[in-house]
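Assemble and predict.
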Amino acid sequence: MPVAISVDAVEVSENLRHKRGYSFPFLSDPKAEVIRRYDLLHPRGGPDGTDISRPAEFLIDRSGTVRWENFTEDIRVRPRADALLAAARSIR
Amino acid sequence: MVDTTVRKRTFAPWMGLLLTVLGALSNGLPFTGFPAASVPWISLLLSLIGFVVLLFGLWQAFGQSTVYKGKLSSALATGFSLLFLAGAIVFFWSARHIPRESAAAPQVGQRVPDFTLPDSTGHSVSLTQLFSGSASKEPPKALLLVFYRGYW
């Protein structure tokens, strides 16, 4: 199950989730506390110099262990679905 | 002495402009789901080739002005392409201007720190709760934590 996390406020996330028709949860981290804890902060990366998260994905199993991860270095470059799916299939 | 020869047209400036415009537009490809990690480079390369073609056109129009005409049109094409080239470079730079290192981020094989955050309905949920499922949903075998920039 995907879980989306950003600094967006609850209402903004709900709006996006609704607009795109996603059923998975969107979590709000407006103060970037979790984003900081995961060392993903992009200082002043947002509009008006706000701190945001750098794009990153973690596939974790039920023990909370990372099985696959992706840190992009270009916001236009998205993770490859095949690599993610291969990692996901290895989780039983 | 009156020049009676007919001067040729040069299409190089317009070709150059076309290439730089295509280069700038190709930046949008990933947003349409085009699966290419090399798009940023394609874009920059197209723009730069376009600019070289354009310089050739300028050389024809100004350097070889007895053979070619089109001083005004090549100057116009140059102006527009410079704008697009500058745009492509700025976009290329800004799209890659993100932190390179997340040294303290969880690595493959490591456990991620637990957290509790409000979901889009305002209810607080923890990582543990996300794994436990709900009355209507089976507990997931895995979670894909997608950190995104927000402001969509």
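Chain B touches chain A through 50 residues (CB under 8 Å).
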